Amino acid sequence: MFGRLFGAKTPILDSLPEVRGKYIENAKLAKHTWFGVGGPAEVLFLPEDADDLKTFLMRKPAAIPVTVIGGGSNLLIRDGGIPGVVVKLDAPAFRQVKFDGAEVTVGAGLKNSDLKKALIDNGVGGLEFICSVPGRIGGLLRTNAGCFGKTVSDVFVRAHIMNDWGQIYETGAEDFNFSYRSSMFPENWIVLDATLKGVKAAPEEIRKTMDEQLAYRLAHQPINKKTAGSTFKNPEGLQAWKLIKEAGCAGLKVGGAEVSDMHCNFLINRGKATAEDIEELGEMIIEKVKEKTAITLEWEVRRMGVKK
Ligand SMILES: Cc1cc2nc3c(=O)[nH]c(=O)nc-3n(C[C@H](O)[C@H](O)[C@H](O)COP(=O)(O)OP(=O)(O)OC[C@H]3O[C@@H](n4cnc5c(N)ncnc54)[C@H](O)[C@@H]3O)c2cc1C
Predict the structure, then answer these.
(1) 1, pLDDT greater than 50
(2) 37, 46, 49, 69: which to mutate for ligand 1, most atoms within 8 A of CB?
(3) Is 35 in the pocket of ligand 1 (CB under 6 A)?
(4) Is residue 228 in a domain?
(5) Ligand 1 mean position to 9 CA, how many Å?
(6) Residue 259 · residue 252 · CB < 8 Å
(7) Are both 171 and 191 inside the same structural domain?
(8) 78 an active-site residue?
């Protein structure tokens, strides 16, 4: 445990280095997640640029844990919050977009949906699926996000990553070790940017694909609700939503959390859910599916922080 929030006598803020970005003590994380739940970050750090992040990582006391978040669209942050420092790349320096032919280098803090216009304007197709995934580029890489038959690993060229000592590396796909909804670089390393490869295409075709993908999502997923997308990974050769439905979990509720009636693998915060409600509902589903099918579902949503 660290700092006053977690019972220590002195706030960790006193031991953090001077930076150009912003420290926010006891920052509410619920507003940084799609579920809209979760306790505070002991300190939320919004670095100004990569140099600022480097200064912070090099000079902070080694014992203070660092957690990076992106758009919070794959996170269930527990009600007790996250000890230590939570880093979010939000400054303009982390949202740059640069084209080189059909390749685009994108800052890790850019919202995936903000890539839409740039792709259309530059006539780069093949990356439309990325714009339909909620969240930001750093989270996209960490989760090897995918949809509409593609994953990030299919279009990945290289990335810049900062390790926990503030050193920057250029990495290729072999360092990421992409697999289904995950990549294997160390948990406390931070993606700074990514270069992705598309194909030259007509702007109207790119726009059409984007519109079709959005329409599909609106028709099949509760994307306007407080959710974190697919809760569980699909077991090899099977679909998690079908197993959940067959186990009789459609409409199941715990407190303010419920299983979406539109898509059984999506859990919804109906407004006043706690992280505990959502986690308990998820664990209940795992049990029921196991009873019915002997299959143990694995969380796709990443759970972070401590219980209240
Ligand atoms: C409505 C809805 C639909 C969705 N549909 C899909 C879908 O079709 N396909 C799919 O794959 N996912 C989907 N998701 C899940 C989610 O959008 C993706 O997993 C997304 O890539 C997460 O990105 P994020 O920026 O929100 O990351 P977060 O949720 O903030 O974090 C996810 C992980 O990434 C890490 N991370 C974040 N930024 C960085 C960084 N800069 N460097 C290193 N690590 C970092 C975090 O530590 C955490 O482990 C959906 C979610 C919602 C809410």
Answers:
(1) no
(2) 69
(3) no
(4) no
(5) 35
(6) yes
(7) yes
(8) no
Identified catalytic residue from 128, 258, 279, 300: 300
CATH number of the domain at 48, please. 3.30.43.10
Q: Is 183 a catalytic residue?
A: no
Q: How far apart are CA 148 and CA 26, in angstroms?
A: 39
How far apart CA 231 and CA 298 sit, in angstroms, is: 9
Q: Is residue 229 part of a domain?
A: no
Residue 13, SS3?
helix
Q: Is residue 233 part of a domain?
A: no
Residues 111 and 83 in one domain: no
CATH number at residue 215: 3.30.465.10
Active site residue 158: no
Count: domains in the chain? 3
Round to whole Å and give the CA distance between 69 and 82: 11
Is the Cβ atom of 269 under 6 angstroms away from ligand 1?
Answer: no
What's the rounded Cα separation, in Å, for the pair 42 and 306?
A: 12
Q: Is 136 in the pocket of ligand 1 (CB under 6 A)?
A: yes
Tell me what the mean pLDDT of segment 229-250 comes to.
97
Answer whether residue 226 is part of any domain: no
* Residue 181 belongs to domain spanning: 95-220
Q: What is the ipTM of this complex?
A: 0.99
Is residue 141 within 8 Å of 116, Cβ to Cβ? no
Clarify whether residues 300 and 265 are in a common domain: yes
pLDDT in tens, 167-216: 999 999 988 899 999 998 888 899 999 999 999 999 999 999 999 999 99
